[in-house]
Design goal:
It contains four helices and 16 strands. By secondary structure, it is α+β, with helices and mostly antiparallel strands. The strands form two sheets. Strands 1, 9, 10, 11, 12, 13, 14 and 15 form an eight-stranded antiparallel β-sheet that branches. Strands 5-4-3-2-8-7-6-16 form an eight-stranded antiparallel β-sheet, covered by helices on one side.
Length: 320
């Protein structure tokens, strides 16, 4: 991944060129209109996918760390007979539907599973290409007293808006009184704060549902971690802090704080032991102009963005 200087912004627009040659090709069915699938040739690339209809119409989509893939099932009509899945792009179009058709239900399930896993691995590969090597830590920065309340910190991808994302160094602090902070820095030096997110007992901290998804939400802020396991660690730490705030727990002493860090370090060591070697060394998304994240934060706070499930999607279906 590129060396982090400042905070690198990347485009998450779906119209970026696809890179290299297809890593898998095959036939699928694409939902082109309400309750109507048509056969397409589907090609999976290292940073997205393309598909073409029998009459020569072609489309390509570059994915981002915040793209999602899920199995789904249509409740009625001809579509209900297919093994379907959807790829959610978040912006500008909520999702694309594809399906597998086979006379053997088991074969159809297996083929759908292969495509879904392939797409989810592509999304994780994109995420990994943007982030520095695994960097989660519990240790404060020497000479930076404002990091002394650190519980855990590491690089995450922040969704700035519908078309851009940033790699930021994020630090979760121990609770103090009735709140705590998730501090977003330009880099691990922690000498330049980009923004601070206040965590209270009413803050929403949750995962995003998707196959092999590493995304999670803190209030109106969307983040992506390097792996789903790292996401679980972040959410566990956030949940533990929220519980202490809700229970009006006294501020932790230095000994208690070190005890919390020791527990988190054990989970970090377990994560590091399962990491696979990096496949891609260059970013799989294009760089873009840096956004004013403080201004974006104000607009997000003023008009919270609807969640994925609140956005309109084509067709009546059930996500599995």
């Amino acid at each position: 991944a590129p060396k982090v200087l400042g905070f690198p912004p990347y485009s998450s627009a779906p119209a970026q060129p696809l890179l290299g040659v297809p890593i898998r090709e095959g036939g699928l069915w694409h939902l082109s209109a309400q309750d109507r699938f048509e056969p397409v040739t589907f090609s999976l690339y290292v940073n997205g996918f393309a598909f073409a209809t029998a009459d020569g119409l072609e489309a390509s989509v570059s994915l981002s760390p915040f793209s999602l893939v899920r199995n789904c099932r249509f409740q009625s009509g001809e579509c209900s007979k297919l093994k379907s899945f959807k790829v959610s792009l978040l912006e500008p179009d909520p999702c694309c539907y594809f399906a597998v058709r086979s006379n053997c239900e088991r074969d159809a399930d297996e083929e759908r599973s292969d495509w879904v896993l392939g797409l989810s691995h592509t999304i994780l590969l994109i995420t990994d290409s943007l982030l520095p090597s695994f960097s989660v830590t519990c240790d404060p920065v020497y000479g930076m007293p404002h990091t002394n309340r650190r519980l855990m910190a590491g690089y995450l991808i922040h969704r700035d808006d519908g078309s851009s994302i940033s790699v930021l160094f994020c630090e979760l602090n121990a609770h103090g009184g009735n709140c705590t902070k998730l501090v977003l820095y330009e880099n691990e030096c922690c000498d330049s704060v980009v923004m601070e997110i206040l965590i209270t007992e009413s803050s929403v901290c949750c995962d995003v549902v998707g196959i092999n998804c590493s995304c999670f939400i803190v209030d109106c802020h969307h983040f992506a971690s390097q792996t789903p396991s790292e996401r679980k660690l972040w959410l566990r730490a956030l949940s533990n802090v929220k519980v202490k705030i809700q229970n009006r727990a006294p501020d932790p002493t230095e000994d208690e704080l070190e005890h919390y860090r020791t527990s988190i370090r054990e989970h970090i060591a377990a994560l590091e032991a399962t990491l696979e070697p990096r496949i891609v060394n260059d970013a799989l998304l294009a760089r873009c102009a840096r956004k004013n994240l403080r201004a974006l934060e104000d607009s997000l706070t003023a008009t919270p963005e609807p969640t994925l499930d609140q956005k309109p999607c084509l067709g009546t279906h059930v996500s599995l």
